[in-house]
Design brief:
This protein is of the alpha+beta class and 120 residues long. Helices cover 57% and strands 15% of the residues. The strands form two sheets. The protein has a two-stranded antiparallel ribbon. The protein has a two-stranded antiparallel ribbon with strand order 3-4. The longest helix is centred in the middle third of the chain and has 26 residues. It is elongated.
């Protein structure tokens, strides 16, 4: 039989010759990583691959947010370099100011939820 250390075989490994425990460990690893897993059959051999460093949705959102901020700064700098003062005033008055006011009002006003719908 395999070594038993406090009932936790996952921390200490599988003993020699304990095929059932090794199969259970392999099955647990496959179940744990089933969303990141891909498999293929090549040359009469089943190959299973698990993506270790896949980006989850939180990291994707963070990357998109940072990219949006960087692109906004770059586009602002390019507009300041290549557009005249009158055009910059039009862009500021018709696009930048309403967006800024809308976002600031959304941050200032608390939103209360009654059931499924927000109460403003």
């Amino acid at each position: 039989m395999g070594r038993r250390h406090g009932g936790n075989r996952f921390l200490y490994g599988v003993g020699e010759g304990d095929v059932a425990d090794e199969d259970n460990l392999n099955l647990a690893i496959l179940r744990w990583n089933r969303l990141k897993m891909a498999y293929a059959r090549r040359n009469q051999v089943n190959q299973v691959s698990i993506k270790v460093h896949e980006l989850d949705s939180n990291k994707k959102q963070l990357i998109r947010t940072v990219m949006g901020l960087v692109l906004g700064v770059i586009s602002g700098l390019l507009m300041q370099l290549f557009l005249d003062k009158a055009t910059l005033d039009i862009v500021d008055g018709s696009l930048i100011t309403p967006l800024r006011d809308m976002l600031m009002n959304a941050l200032r006003r608390p939103v209360l939820y009654a059931g499924r719908y927000p109460v403003l």
